[in-house]
Every structure is written in structure tokens, then in C-alpha cells.
Write a structure and sequence with these properties.
about 0% strand
Length: about 70
Amino acid sequence: MSDATQLEALELKLAFLEDAHAKLDDVVRDQHQRITHLEGVLKKLVEEYRELRDLLQDEQGDAPPPHY
């Protein structure tokens, strides 16, 4: 294999790797954005759950026992 052919093969491989790297970077960025969004949604759900749980406990504390 001549030097020119080897150089061309290396350049082709480098171009392929650069393209693959760029695509993977896009995927990682997208996943990071999705994870950040889902963390926010989960945080809101936990807060709402705690508020509803506390509200339900307060209502049950004021109600007479079921046998009355």
C-alpha cells in the first residue's frame, strides 16, 4: 500500500470518527436535556404528592372515627 493510499484511508477513517463523535455528542446533549426536564417534573410531582398527603392527613385528623 502506498503512502498516499494509507493517508487517504486514514483521512477517511478520521472523517468517519469525527461524524460519529458529532452524532454521539448530539445524543448525549439531547439525553441531558430530557433528564433535566424529567428531574423537574419529578420534583413537582413529589411536592404535589407531599401537599396532598399532608392535606389528607389533616382532613382525617378532624374527622370522627368511623364507628360514630
